[in-house]
Amino acid sequence: MAKYIIGTRGSLLALTQCGQIKDELERITGDEFSLKVIKTQGDQIVDKPLWQLEGKDFFTKELDAALLTGDVDMVVHSYKDLGSERPEGIHLAAITKRSFASDILLIKDETISKIKEKKTFIVGTSSPRRIVNIEKNLGEFLPTDQPIEVKTKILRGNVNTRIERLLSDEYDAIILAHAGVERLARTASSMETLKSLLKDLNFMVLPQSVFPSAASQGALAIECLENRSDNGELLEKLKKVEDKITISEVSRERQAFRSYGGGCHLAVGINVKKFGDYYLHIHAGKTDEKEVNDIQIEGSFQSASKKAPVFVGLPNDRLSKYIESNPSLSISGCELIKKTPLKAQDISGERFIATNFGLEEIKDNGSCLYTAGVKTWKSLAKKGLWVNASSDSRGEEEIESIRSSLALKVMRENKSSDSKTINLFSHKDSPTNFNLVESYKREVLELNADQEERFLSNQFFFWSSFSSYQDYVAKYPQIKERFHMCGIGKTLDLFKEEGISVRPFLDIDSALAWVSTLS
Length: 519
Description:
Layout: E1 3-8, H1 12-29, E2 32-37, H2 41-44, H3 61-68, E3 74-78, E4 90-95, E5 103-108, H4 109-112, E6 120-124, H5 128-137, E7 149-153, H6 159-167, E8 173-177, H7 178-185, H8 188-198, E9 201-205, E10 220-225, H9 233-238, H10 244-259, E11 267-275, E12 278-287, E13 290-298, E14 310-312, H11 320-325, E15 331-332, E16 337-341, E17 350-353, E18 369-371, H12 374-382, E19 389-390, H13 396-403, H14 406-415, E20 422-426, E21 435-438, E22 440-444, H15 449-456, E23 460-463, H16 466-475, E24 483-486, H17 490-497, E25 503-504, H18 508-516
Parallel strand pairs: 1-2, 1-3, 6-7, 6-8, 14-15, 14-23, 17-18, 17-20, 18-19, 20-21, 23-24, 24-25
Antiparallel strand pairs: 3-10, 4-10, 5-8, 5-9, 11-12, 12-13, 16-22
């Protein structure tokens, strides 16, 4: 049995995540791994944001030295802490599977009830990326119909220290990396500490489409010496905890990170998510005083060269903003399907709102509230409702992932004894693994001659649901061979299952912007 020493920082989170890697390696290899705590400059200076300090590699250079001198055999880093340039002789041996890459906002329940009265909302963070995106966008996600200014205030220290400062009312809310809090929740000893800190708090999982996380956030990087005198034995063992999908995502994030200049001063969030055969790239923030707001999908796509009329699967009365934003396009809406809101039901348990119908009747029932997209979130926020998370147009799987978080489970169960139940608000034929609550009914109509001519003039079709596509194709099979588009959630999955060629976009805005670029 071989024995190895893992170098680690001394914070609760660093010790916890290194302990988890240690346990996994011992389980897989049968070898013995021990931890050695090494103090870093970043851990000792907590009164200033890192971007205000001279130098670089504040959380890594002491660990690098220990590795290069042979004091430790390997080190484990939060990958986002690693700079673009690593010392000669140090090798990135493995990147582990990541989950919960998003940021989360933590807030006292009692503060939520006072937001309507506030003119200014103070959020604790020291990240330039978070500062830019939070101050610019968070106000629209807070439960108030009044203008509110979001300001940030410097917050440093380990996870438990930051939460304690929130509890002492130094901030209205704080931002943390969800992955870090989750790792604490997955070790029994640190979970006990976490429970006492989170018991009176509520949460908001910040949607990546608006608040993208740091490049490689949520991933752990394991390094060892490039030329060890063991014929690659340790490296081979470390490869056993590597995750190929995570590598494919974070390698793209790190490439973008370097293209923006890198460093702890970078005020651009970068997130890449693999779904099926595609990668969704989201960049947002500011660099060189220029705003960055870029959403792209990488993959092999059906192509088109000529601009033509576009059908959007929404009622005509909801198209005005899309028409105004794309003056060069002819855009028409759905006239075949009539949707009628149904009377709201008093539903206990958590709710996933997948429709805009009946939003005015949604009330706070004491449980968590989720939305399918950020537009529905903003509408509910204006009604004074606290929304906990969104699938961010990625479907039920995203909500299921969020609800699997042990850290969030602490707060979810404290909010409601009925936290295990989740209800999908949609129509009765919606495919779902959740408890279905029928919030509107669908009726397929007949188009008159003018409506039919207008519909058949379209060459591009953006479908908000697969059932709408089926209803239209049943009456007008000639549209099958035209250009079809949809979002990246369940609708895309259903198109793929049926072998129908479709081009995915994050949302309608992205699809129309692409069609507008055609000649």
